[in-house]
User: Which sequence fits this backbone?
């Protein structure tokens, strides 16, 4: 696929890729700042069950890390790395260090049996950004003249296309897993009410809404709603290639995630935040500049 064909599906300018980098890193930075690392450091090391590559590290390392001071150091390193990646300072280095530290942090959480797929698109997108020229524009490096714009838009368009595919795959695969594990029984009238009530009875969520207890009164309509959600997830890849479909699919995604928060007390902030990879930031900036220019040069009313 050449630059011209790629431009039909995704923006191929350096500024858009730079804005995506700034937005993604800024969101993760805020999440890290608002998270209590010291509480995690107070958990006993004996609860840790390292998985995958986390098993390479020694228990002596975890003994030093899993203390309030050790986790505070990890948090400081992540904040520094993500902040420099957000502003585009030493972008090639800071994006790689941010990806590495965030992957390690997510691995640490999962070693405490916190299995959650919400952060995974952010992990994949950080890795893509780490190996793309996302600091060529909209960065401190570019303002200091340390970077240059490549002639070919492919180097900017392909990372954006890949990030969109990865996010779309998260939704598409979720629908496939539902159908593979539960089959058509996933559309049972009792499935959604029971799941929503179970999640609303515990105290392990950030919200405590009670709308789930209203669902049994409308249980006969829930299969239609669940089927529409599964269909929306299966059709999410259309947002990669068709602009009109993208607007509808992303709008439905916002309502879906708000619905899971109010009815199931489950929220997916990382998934919602990663929608920024679908925004054509270069075109949006041009429209804002044109609007402001028209407002500035509008003739006075007589």
Assistant:
């Amino acid at each position: 696929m050449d630059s011209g064909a790629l431009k039909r599906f995704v923006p191929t300018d350096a500024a858009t890729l730079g804005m995506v980098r700034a937005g993604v890193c800024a969101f993760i930075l805020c999440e890290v700042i608002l998270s209590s690392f010291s509480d995690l450091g107070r958990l006993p090391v004996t609860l840790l069950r390292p998985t995958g590559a986390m098993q390479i590290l020694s228990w002596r390392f975890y003994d030093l890390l899993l203390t309030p001071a050790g986790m505070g150091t990890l948090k400081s390193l992540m904040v520094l790395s993500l902040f420099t990646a957000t502003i585009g300072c030493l972008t090639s280095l800071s994006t790689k260090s941010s990806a590495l530290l965030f992957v390690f942090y997510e691995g640490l959480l999962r070693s405490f049996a916190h299995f959650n797929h919400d952060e995974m698109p952010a992990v994949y997108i950080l890795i893509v950004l780490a190996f793309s020229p996302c600091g060529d524009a909209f960065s401190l490096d570019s303002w200091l003249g340390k970077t240059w714009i490549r002639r070919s838009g492919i180097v900017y368009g392909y990372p954006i296309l890949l990030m969109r595919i990865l996010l779309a795959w998260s939704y598409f695969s979720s629908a496939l897993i539902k159908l593979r594990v539960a089959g058509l029984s996933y559309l049972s009238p009792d499935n959604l009410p029971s799941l929503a009530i179970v999640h609303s009875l515990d105290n392990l969520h950030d919200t405590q809404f009670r709308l789930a207890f209203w669902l049994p009164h409308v249980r006969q309509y829930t299969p239609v709603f669940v089927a529409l959600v599964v269909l929306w997830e299966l059709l999410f890849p259309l947002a990669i290639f068709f602009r009109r479909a993208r607007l509808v699919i992303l709008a439905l995604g916002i309502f879906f995630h708000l619905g899971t928060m109010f009815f199931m007390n489950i929220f997916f902030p990382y998934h919602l935040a990663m929608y920024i990879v679908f925004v054509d930031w270069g075109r949006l900036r041009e429209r804002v500049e044109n609007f402001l220019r028209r407002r500035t040069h509008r003739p006075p009313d007589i």
Notes: DSSP finds 15 helices and no strands in the chain. Residues 29 and 63 are 26 Å apart (CA to CA). Residues 154-182 form the longest helix (29 residues).
